[in-house]
Amino acid sequence: MLEDITVLCHSSIKINKEKVIYIDPFKIDKNYNDADIIFITHDHYDHYSEEDIDKVKKEDTVIIVPEELLTKVLRKGFKQDYIITVEPNKSYMVDGLKFETILAYNTNKQFHPKENGWVGYIIEIKDIRYYIAGDTDITEENKKVKCDVAFVPVGGTYTMDFKEAANLINEIQPKIAVPIHYGSVVGTKQDAIDFSKLLNPKIECKILMK
Fold first, then answer.
1. Measured between alpha carbons, how far is 15 from 5 in angstroms, rounded to an integer?
2. Which of 89, 95, 102, 189 has the fewest beta carbons closer than 10 A?
């Protein structure tokens, strides 16, 4: 399920399966310009990085963003036909790819207010559901997620920490859990290791970020 999927840095993920997909490209090491689709969860600099978007986008790249980012991506030079704005808790289709949005927000801190409408995504590829949680705490919305693979933040401070992330994963029970959102802005690889130790033994943990 994780073949051709890379966690590049922090919360930046590349999926190279039926299409080349980037989620929240950040600290990209060189110009690849190979993205068919870019998913952005919200507009913080470590998730919406115009410098890194430039390194992965090509002429016909489709970018998927929360509604509040529309003005920015238009100003960035994306044509309206190649922009999909999304609202939380909806289902969409782009170029034959099905995806859903899950509201992502903080419940006990102020960094990611619920009213901003920021999101995580469930992307369906060959009947496998990949959940990318975005910057979030445990919420009523993400406790209902059904997925095969879950990418969850474990670094704490701005999101859930490794203990909270493990609680969420043990509740939604994907087949595989991948810790992200550590090692750059906040958190360390130790958070990922500690997260793995708290998971239900039936759930496989894969630490993809070095």
1. 5
2. 95
Token pair 């033994």 in the structure block, residue:
201
pLDDT in tens, 162-178: 999 999 999 999 999 99
Residue 29 pLDDT exceeds 80:
yes
Whole-angstrom distance, CA of residue 139 vs CA of residue 168? 9
Residue written as token pair 């998971």: 199
Q: Provide φ and ψ at 147, rounded to 5°.
A: -155, 165
pLDDT of residue 188: 79
Furthest CA-CA distance within the chain: 47
**Using CA atoms, how far apart are residues 6 and 12, in angstroms rounded to an integer?**
9
Kind and range of the H or E run holding 171: helix 162-172
Query: How far, in Å, CA of 178 to CA of 196, rounded?
Result: 9
- What pTM did the predictor assign? 0.95
- Calculate ∠ Cα 10-16-18, nearest 5°: 140
What angle do helix axes 162-172 and 189-197 make, rounded to 10 degrees? Answer: 40
The three-state secondary structure class of 189 is helix
Tell me 131's DSSP state.
E
Q: Are 186 and 169 in contact (CB under 8 A)?
A: no
* Under 8 Å between Cβ of 110 and 100: no
Identify which of 132, 115, 143, 142 has the alpha carbon closest to the alpha carbon of residue 177.
132
